[in-house]
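Hi P.,

Sorry for the delay on this. The queue was packed all week, but I finally got your sequence through. Input first:
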Amino acid sequence: MPLKKLIQRGFMLIIFCQLLLPANAQQILTLESALNIAASNSPDIRRSLLNLERSEQSLKAQNAALKSNFSLGVTPLSYDQRRQFDMFNSQWYTSKTTQSFGTLTVAQPFLPTDATISLVNRFGWQNNYVERFNGVEENKAFTNYLSLSIAQPLFTYNRTKLELKELELDLENAQLNYAMQKLNNEKQVTQFFYNVYEAQMSLSISQDEFINTQKSYEITENKVTAGISAKEELYQAELNFATSKSAVQNAQVNLDNFKDQFKQYIGMDIMEEITVMTDVAMNPVIVDVKKAIEYGLNSRMELRQREIDIETSQFALIRTRSLNEFRGDVNLSLGISGDNEKLFNIYDNPTNNPRVSVSFNLPLYDWGEKKARIKAQEAVIQTQELNQSEEKKQITLDIRRVYRSIQNLVNQIDIAAQSEKNAQLTYEINLERYANGDLTSMDLNLFQNQLSQKKMAYAQALIDYKIELLNLKIQSLYDFEKNEAIVPENLIQKKRP
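Then the structure:
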């Protein structure tokens, strides 16, 4: 069977070329380099950064709105012609007005009392032409009106302060979300990374299995040719060989799919060739579960977010209580106006224009609307407080669960390592028995499958241990591998403009 043997060896050569030749063109990624790429390219991180930018700019805009606002309105030309009735003289008359004017306004919000102080100056020129029954009148003059006014709401909450505080909390919440997204991104990248690594391991084990199957096939072929074994043994060996070859191809497809998912998540070019490299050797880490719970309850950002939810709900309650409220408004204005045909004589005969108004809104009866809405909002606040309490319980439960999983995985790794060693020795012994004719190819294939399963189980246990250590770090915000606390800078450096 020289042709079949040539085909078989050619297939093995292709497999090894796939491993060796593309290596020069592939980008080798470690977990650290993958995290660095994801930190700037991951779509989830970019969305979180954009949300943070939105909150920062909104707060910046609100603080800018608290400063003096300057505006200038200019009307270069205005012409108005009307036919009107003079009731006093019972006559119709025609008026034509041509004017040009500009208005400069300076408005200054006053944060402590939610008042607005405005300085307004209106300067212009006008030509007023009137045709009456007793003649024609025309007046040309420069005019100027200067006023200082204050608008002060009474008996109500400070809306400007409330909006500013809401935006500050929104920014803090966005900072927390960004910090949490970075931790979640680390978890997801690690999970995808180890998926690729596990798929690589699976491909490597499948290739080892294929090599072993190739050896057993050659032994069977020689034995059948020599008339030592029945021809049925060769048929079974060919079936095992084809199954092993298919397993290699399936493992390759699975690896390529995991690579694409990994590249998509970290923001790499899908067409770029990569391979991952890491050390999953067992390095036992001592974990203090009480310390983990303490750090989790003191540092977890979700708890601060629940506090922000409660504060935001309190603000909503303030707004609800202002429905149909007793409210007052005071408006005070002091102004001076003047007009004259000559520009520099505008204020030869000035006129004072004081204005004061006090108004109140007195709600009479709302059929219980306000009371019902307040109770509804109070229920929302109680729900938020309950969520905060349950969040603390959940943090404790999650840390305890992860701790138990880590302790269990330490034992599982030891068992898996010993199982792999035993499976390797068992396969070698039975391979020799098969060569001596004491074992069928079907029985040998069972031992080969067992060896492959034990190798994968050991690799999986190591990967699970690494992932659970990372999960504990995220749950407790304490890194027991480095023995240091994780304090996101966005949690500490709260931006206060």
